[in-house]
Write a structure and sequence with these properties.
The chain folds into 2 domains: about 230 residues, Malonyl-Coenzyme A Acyl Carrier Protein, domain 2 (3-Layer(aba) Sandwich), CATH 3.40.366.10; about 70 residues, Alpha-Beta Plaits (2-Layer Sandwich), CATH 3.30.70. About 55% of the residues lie in helices and about 15% in strands. It is built from 15 helices and 10 strands. β9, α14 and β10 form a beta-alpha-beta unit. α5 runs parallel beside α7. The radius of gyration is 18 Å and the shape is globular. The N and C termini lie close together (about 10 Å).
Length: about 300
Amino acid sequence: MRAFIFPGQGSQSVGMGSALAQASAAARETFQEVDDALEQALSRIMAEGPEETLTLTANAQPAIMAHAIAVLRVLEREGGVRLADKADFVAGHSLGEYTALCAAETFDLATTARLLRKRGDAMQSAVPVGEGAMAALLGADLEKARAIAQAAAEGQVCTVANDNDPGQVVISGHRAAVERAVPLAKEMGAKRAVLLPVSAPFHCPLMQPAAEAMEAALAEATLRAPLVPLYANVTAAPSADPDAIRRQLVEQVTGMVRWRESVRAMHAAGVTQFVELGGKVLTPMVKRIVPEADAVSVVSMGDIETLAKGL
C-alpha cells in the first residue's frame, strides 16, 4: 500500500517549480490557474522572490500547495500515473492537508488556493506580531514536550503544536512562555530547544480567531468525498466524509498536528511506501517514525520520471 503525502510551511524556497515549469506545460498551467484564482502573479514570486515576500504566510501557503499539485499533475500527465490508482491514502502536514485534499479532488485547485490565502491571512492577523512564538524541542518525545510546555506556561498559552517524529516536537504559544521553555527544555531532558523563525504561533489556542475565519470560509466551499481517504492531522485516522473533513480542517487551526501518529497509523494499516510530492521535509520524518518503510521525495522532473517507472 502507498500514501501520497504533502509538506507544510517552511518547505518554500525562491525558484521552487521553475525548472518544472520550463519542462512541462502541465506545471505551467497549474501555476497559471493559481495566479488567476488569487488575482496575483504568485508564480513570479515563487520563481524570482524576494524571499521575504515568498515567506509571508499568505503567500507561502498557496505557493507550497501549487508546487506540490504541479508535481502531481506532471506525474499524471507525463508519467501516466493517476492518484486514485496508485495511492491508498493521502495526508499532509498542516497546510499540506489542503494540498492532499486538492490532490484527492475534495477541493478544486482554485478553491484550494483561495482557502489557503484566507488561512494565511487569518493566521497572521490572529495574534499581533511579536506576541506569539514557536520552538522546536529536539530529543524530546510528546510526553516530555507536554511537561516542558506546561512548566513554561505560568498562566499563559504554551502547548504542543506539532508532534513531528519521535525526537522532534514543536511547541507554540505566547512568546514569553515559549522563551521560558527554551532553557527549561534542556533542564528537563531535551537535547536542545530552538526558537523557530515564524511570524505567528500556529496550532495553539491563540489561533481561535483564525479557526472562526476558516469555519466561515469552509462553510461556503464545495467539498467532495476524496478519491482516497485522508489521514487527518487532528485525529491521525482516515476520513472520507466531506462534513467530517470540514470540521477537522477548522479544528486543525488550533489543534495539534499529529504527524507521528498519522504515519504510524498509515503504516499499521498496511502502507509500506510514502511518496512526498513537492518537498523534502516529510521524508526524513517518515524514516525516523517507521524506518522499515520506503519513503521517497519527488520534486524534480527526474524524480517524477523515476517514480513513474517504479509505480
